[in-house]
Amino acid sequence: MSQENVELVRQMLATFIEVDEGLAEPERLSKFFSPDAPFELDDPVALDAQALRGVDEFIEWRAGWIEPYDDWSYRAEKILAAGADRVVATFHQRGRPRGSDSWVEWHYGIVYVVEAGLITGGRVYPTPEEALEAAGPRE
Q1: 90 with 109: CB under 8 angstroms?
Q2: What is the span of the domain harbouring residue 61?
Q3: How many C-beta atoms lie closer than 10 Å to residue 37's C-beta?
Q4: What's the pLDDT score for residue 88?
Q5: What is the pLDDT of residue 55?
Q6: Count of Cβ atoms closer than 10 Å to residue 16 Cβ
Q7: Does the global pTM surpass 0.85?
Q8: Backbone region of residue 65 per phi and psi (left: phi > 0; alpha: psi in -120 to 50; beta: other values)
Q9: CATH number at residue 73
């Protein structure tokens, strides 16, 4: 089951990219998530964030997160099975704040919980190492 969970997360992230590029509507993401999947942001940078409920709240929070940037991108670096119901993904994010010539970079991780073919929750960690540690043993 764990490889199927990895593939589910991989497909969800590919759909996020399509949404970002205007090739898909955000509603397409709902097929990957349980309706009220909680997302927690264990990140001191995201002080205004609370536990978010459902993919719509996450998308709304994310839009506010990337709004201050003229250029912004991210990519998954690793997607790994971590037990029967967890998938850990590590990311690299890069952005150029509006009106600046400097770039801001961030490496972080998300642990997704997958049950019955749907993502039922996720937690964002400020570093890939913290996400990998929180996810537990990997397969």
Answers
A1: yes
A2: 2-135
A3: 21
A4: 96
A5: 81
A6: 20
A7: yes
A8: alpha
A9: 3.10.450.50
Which amino acid is it at 129? E
Short-list 4, 14, 13, CA closest to 89: 13
Q: Supply 17's token pair.
A: 């990219």
Give the residue ranges of the chain where pLDDT is below 70.
1, 42-50, 137-139
Q: How many domains does the chain have?
A: 1
Alpha helices in the chain (DSSP H): 2-20, 54-66, 128-135
pLDDT value for 137 = 67
The structure tokens 């097929």 sit at: 31
Rounded to whole angstroms, what are the CA distances from 52 to 21, 75, 129? Answer: 24, 22, 23
List Cβ neighbours of 88 (8 Å cut-off, separation of 6 or more). 78, 79, 80, 82, 109, 110, 111, 112, 131, 132, 134, 135, 138
DSSP, res 33: B
